[in-house]
Amino acid sequence: MFNPPNPKKFFATVWNIVEQIPEGKVSTYGQIATMIPASDGTDPDQMKRLAPRWVGTAMRKTPKGQNIPWHRVINSQGKVSFPEGSPQAEEQYRLLEMEGVEFDNKGKVDFDIVGWEGPNYEYLESNDLFPPKPFT
DNA sequence: CGTTTGACTACGC
DNA sequence: CGCGTAGCCAAAC
To answer: How much is the pTM?
Structure first.
């Protein structure tokens, strides 16, 4: 079963990845989760189900004042994961629309248009940002 | 210190 | 499409 061997590092890795989502693009909790290698040999199918929760947990703890584009992370359905109408949801929609992300009449984005391709692994590795390196 | 609570997702109906 | 469920545990109460 997947669980972060070291939650602190796992969270930091999530933030590292989120920081690289460019303006006008979005990623999902699950997508980000799959970018982080399971260090405990967890079955990939289990990863799909369990890891996203941890990404969500990481996002909940996103440090403020570090310019982390938290709003560019949405759920696999292409919608923001806050209750519709909540201040946080409104804020997230606002921030995204401000950078050109469009939502259809159901509040969904088109991943074909604004989906993020993923992080630059070579860049991450060359800067020792990946595997997990905690903020200090 | 015990209980509740999540910024999730795939899958089955 | 929508709705319910399992899987799972660090934090926040």
So the answer is: 0.84
